[in-house]
Recover the amino acids of this structure.
């Protein structure tokens, strides 16, 4: 199957790229192996996306984006990509179901939560250890839960958990939060939220379910045990770059390096959203990236159209 543009990943960046690409008259396919919308679908209330003064759930927002892209002809394909290759200027995408070709490729594979990598974490994941408050928060009604981290996601999700839990304990390795001030102020003013500073989790204890956290204070080195019903971990993200490492230039953390046009080091291949090296990872910046990537891809196809047609005729 041949397309003008193939987009990998259907989060906000990929959905925006699909909209702009399809609306520009390009034959567009967007591949997503899991849920359309990406990580933002589990966010209960997105209150900083322009146009929604009362906020909107991540699921509803990306559902609207998908419908809009489909209206202009974008084709959604639910297959997992196993390899990316090049044949001259053409991009070759392999899945378990077959092979697809495109003139241009936009990578929007996003990122995933970083783990603490402490004893007990993997064994108790799904049994008290979680990375998604929106998914699992309702399981902890009238319980005591901990949130690990001090950034926007940790504090916002901690706020969300107070809808269910009787107490939320935020554990942060520093003595101040990294979250935006407005988010911090809400948390400090919430009577259900407590803070433990300068502290890290050393081990997660429990038999069939989580029972307690083993904590160590980074300054005093004192070790304490905190009985807990659940823990939600927000200590950063890691790029989903498994398909890219041998071909696309990455930064030291594994995120894709691009120029201001979202162009990678490979002509005709672009990156957008959380997978990209960027100073801010928000829905609004991801959709902006996607729009720029689609515009750049269209421009590149036009500039290289004759060469692409010659190569296509040879195959």
């Amino acid at each position: 199957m041949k397309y003008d543009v193939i987009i990998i990943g259907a989060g906000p960046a990929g959905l925006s790229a699909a909209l702009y690409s399809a609306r520009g008259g390009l034959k567009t396919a967007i591949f997503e192996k899991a849920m359309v919308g990406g990580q933002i679908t589990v966010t209960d209330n997105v209150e900083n996306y322009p146009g929604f003064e009362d906020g909107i759930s991540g699921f509803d927002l990306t559902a609207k984006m998908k419908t809009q892209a489909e209206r202009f002809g974008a084709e959604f394909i639910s297959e997992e990509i196993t390899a990316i290759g090049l044949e001259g200027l053409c991009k070759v995408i392999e899945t378990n179901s077959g092979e697809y070709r495109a003139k241009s490729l936009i990578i929007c594979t996003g990122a995933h939560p970083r783990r603490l990598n402490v004893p007990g974490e993997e064994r108790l994941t799904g049994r008290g250890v979680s990375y998604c408050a929106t998914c699992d928060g309702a399981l902890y009604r009238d319980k005591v839960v901990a949130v690990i981290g001090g950034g926007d996601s940790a504090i916002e999700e901690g706020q969300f958990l107070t809808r269910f839990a009787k107490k939320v304990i935020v554990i942060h390795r520093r003595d101040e939060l990294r979250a935006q001030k407005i988010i911090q102020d809400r948390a400090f003013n919430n009577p259900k939220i407590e803070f433990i500073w300068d502290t890290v989790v050393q081990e997660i204890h429990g038999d069939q379910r989580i029972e307690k956290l083993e904590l160590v204070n980074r300054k005093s080195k004192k070790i304490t045990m905190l009985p807990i019903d659940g823990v939600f971990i927000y200590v950063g993200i890691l790029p989903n770059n498994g398909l890219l490492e041998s071909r696309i230039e990455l930064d030291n953390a594994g995120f894709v390096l691009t120029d201001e046009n979202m162009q990678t080091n490979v002509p005709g291949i672009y990156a957008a959203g959380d997978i990209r090296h960027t100073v801010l990872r928000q829905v609004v910046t991801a959709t902006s990236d996607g729009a720029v990537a689609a515009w750049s891809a269209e421009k590149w196809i036009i500039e290289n159209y004759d060469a692409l047609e010659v190569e296509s005729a040879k195959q």
Q: What stands out?
A: The two ends are 12 Å apart (CA to CA). The chain has two domains: 2-112+237-314, 115-233. The mean pLDDT is 93.
